[in-house]
Write a structure and sequence with these properties.
The chain has about 400 residues and is of the alpha/beta class. Helix content is about 35%, strand content about 20%. The protein folds into two domains: about 240 residues, Ribonuclease Z/Hydroxyacylglutathione hydrolase-like (Metallo-beta-lactamase, Chain A); about 140 residues, Rossmann fold. Bound molecules: MU-OXO-diiron (FEO). The site of MU-OXO-diiron has 8 residues, from helix 2.
């Protein structure tokens, strides 16, 4: 499917450098997993010099709109280099079409990307594999390729335009949220960008936080000026490029935040009551608490609030002698996204045999998480002893995060 009748739009970033990306208000779930209530943008850039380079393409259904944006500046057939910072199809989906038009172009990418391109598209253009920090002259402008492995795939690189000090940073420093004609940080409500870029980082890139940290160190270590950060999703930072570097640094840092995130399931309200009792105790101890009922919060918001929490609290009813299925699903995300190890507190209710908390504890301990004592297990209404156990658990949590 192609979207034929859409408004075209490019934006000049600086002389000879243009945004030619597109907004997506069509995809409900990024990666068919993560909600996009404000849409998303697929950013692509054109650098026009003696030679013409396009940096990244867009998701395939937006190919026509993207080509129209390019045509406002140059004939796509005249493109000399197609720089693929990252092979994921949200950035390479239009490659087959541009390859048909720009028959003499050369694809520029890393060695790992070359193997992926053959498998995904195999468009048959000339190719140039670039080493880390290799340069390519376009005439008066020079592109320098900076390998940033695992931000977000192993083949990923960023591209630095030296003369204009533009870092085309790929998925690093990206955000959910369509741009709607406001392409720059000084044109956009940054409260929305702060929340959407944190949700983007937490859902897409949590597994690779240490690579984000490495990429930030590497970019800083280049010792070059950065006037613009132009990522592959979300706004271009020209007013304050350090804002996004500092935020991504903080959000991917191994130093966790001082808040607690309680995630609980509840079938008939007994576990909900325990969750609220624990929350009350924590708040009275001066602890910042985020809380999610796993049946009603979406997984992206649960992950975003949990990934930086100093302590995660899981509350589960026993369901068929196991933890509540949606709590299991969150634990699976923690594992799959390689959540940093940190203390976990557990509580739960059961009608008769129990097993939910016990099985969670066993699984988490096998996966090297420290489990805080006491584990609070009640039938329905907590006994006086169990109420005391909740107070003790709250104190033990507070000692860690305060
Ligand atoms: Fe936006 Fe990893 O692709």
């Amino acid at each position: 499917m192609h979207l034929e009748e859409t408004e075209t739009m490019h934006r000049k970033i600086t002389d000879g450098v243009y945004y030619v990306g597109v907004d997506d208000h069509h995809t409900a779930l990024f990666e068919n997993l993560w909600p996009l209530p404000f849409g998303v943008s697929y950013n692509s850039y054109l650098v026009v010099d003696d030679k013409i380079a396009v940096i990244d393409t867009v998701k395939n259904i937006f190919t026509q709109e993207w080509l129209d944006n390019i045509r406002e500046i140059v004939d796509p057939e005249k493109i000399d280099y197609i720089v693929l910072n990252h092979m994921e199809p949200d950035h390479t989906g239009a490659l087959p079409k541009i390859a048909e038009l720009a028959k003499n172009a050369t694809i520029v990418f890393t060695q790992k990307a070359a193997g992926m391109e053959e498998s995904f598209y195999n468009v048959g253009l000339k190719t140039k594999v670039v080493e880390d920090l290799e340069e390519l002259s376009l005439g008066k402008k020079t592109l320098k390729f900076v390998h940033v492995q695992f931000v977000h795939w192993p083949e990923t690189m960023a591209t630095y335009l030296a003369e204009d000090e533009v870092l085309f940073s790929c998925d690093a420093f990206g955000s959910f949220g369509a741009l709607n004609g406001k392409h720059f940080d000084d044109e956009i409500d940054m409260r929305m960008i702060e929340s959407e870029s944190k949700r983007y980082l937490s859902t897409i890139i949590t597994s690779y936080f240490k690579f984000v940290q490495r990429a930030i160190e590497k970019v800083k270590g280049l010792g070059v000026g950065i006037k613009f950060i132009a990522p592959s999703h979300g706004p271009i930072y020209r007013k304050d490029p350090t804002w996004v570097i500092d935020h991504f640094d903080k959000w991917s840092s191994p130093e966790l935040d001082k808040h607690v995130t309680i995630i609980f399931g509840s079938m008939y309200g007994y576990n909900l009551r325990l969750a609220h009792t624990l929350k009350k105790e924590l708040v009275e101890l001066g602890v910042e608490v985020k809380i999610h009922n796993i049946s009603y919060s979406t997984m992206d918001n649960v992950i975003t609030d949990a990934v930086r929490a100093g302590v995660i609290v899981l509350g589960t009813p026993t369901y068929d002698a196991f933890p509540f299925p949606k709590i299991w699903a969150f634990v699976n995300e923690m594992e799959g996204k390689r959540f940093q190890k940190r203390p976990i507190a557990l509580f739960g209710t059961h009608g008769w045999g129990g097993g939910g908390v016990r099985k969670l504890k066993k699984y988490l301990e096998e996966n090297k998480f420290e489990i805080l004592e006491p584990n609070v297990r009640c039938r329905a209404t907590p006994t006086e002893e169990e109420r005391q156990a909740i107070k003790t658990l709250a104190k033990n949590i507070a000692e860690i995060v305060k």
